Amino acid sequence: MRKTNRIILILMAVAIAVLYAIVLIDPDEKTQPPTTGTVATTGSVIKMAYVNSDSLLENYSYYQALKEDLEKEHNRLSNQINQQARSLENEIQNYQETAMELSSSQRQEKEEVLYKKQQDLLKKREQLLGELGEKEQDLQDQLHSDLTDYIKEYNHDKGYTIIFGYSRGGGILFADDALDITDDIIQGLNNRTR
User: Fold this and answer.
1) What residues pair up with 40 in beta bridges, in sequence order?
2) Model confidence pLDDT, tens digit, residues 128-176
3) Are 166 and 172 in contact (CB under 8 A)?
4) Under a CB-based contact definition with an 8 Å cutoff, are residues 114 and 91 in contact?
5) CB burial class (10 A; 0-12, 13-18, 19+) of residue 53?
6) b/e string for 69-78 if b means 16 or more Cβ within 10 A?
7) Average pLDDT for residues 66-89, to the nearest whole number?
């Protein structure tokens, strides 16, 4: 959800920048039509391209490795919590089977112990989910930083003014395939050494 909101905000900011650039075009200026991927403005040319975010994430090996690690961690924590929950359920079931043999004070004491264990388990579950969420956010931040650093490096020689992020259901409804640099970006990212 956070990733989707961030992408939408970035796309909106880029769209506003493009609209701003288009407004600056002098309507009386007689120029040749721009080449594919460029927009002529008074005094400058905006060279544009886009990266298909969906394809990028599907084919970027580092992202896939991070995603797999996060899923393994999630499964490990889920198994740990589920095992503790089953153990507590067994303890509760054993108590229910033997409760009649205990005095009322012993039952009350055992119920308090079981209730405390249940509350501790719920707290631990929430804590682990919070830690997992923080780890996921850290990985998303790391991925975003990695992508933007590489795109800046890639663009050093290419000279694009704007590189859009295109995703299905995003703010860009159509983009000419000639502007798509996704494969170049994926290949470059996957060829980098870590």
Assistant:
1) 45
2) 999 999 999 998 898 899 999 999 999 999 999 999 998 888 888 888 8
3) yes
4) yes
5) buried
6) eeeeeeeebe
7) 92
User: Do 165 and 180 meet the contact criterion of CB atoms below 8 Å apart?
Assistant: no
In the predicted structure, residue 180 carries a pLDDT above the cut 80: yes
Q: Residue 7's pLDDT is what? A: 55
Task: Calculate helix-pair angle for 2-23, 104-158, nearest 10 degrees.
Answer: 30
Give me the DSSP letters along 80-146: HHHHHHHHHHHHHHHHHHHGGGS-HHHHHHHHHHHHHHHHHHHHHHHHHHHHHHHHHHHHHHHHHHH
For strands 38-41 and 44-52, give the pairing. Answer: antiparallel
Gap between the Cα atoms of 74 and 132, Å rounded: 7
Residues 6+ apart with CB under 8 A from 60: 186, 189, 190
Domain segments of the chain: what residues?
Answer: 2-61+139-191, 67-136
pTM value? 0.63
Residue carrying the six token digits 């969420």:
133
Helix (H) or strand (E) holding 157: helix 104-158
The torsion angles phi and psi of 44, rounded to 5 degrees, stand at -155, 165
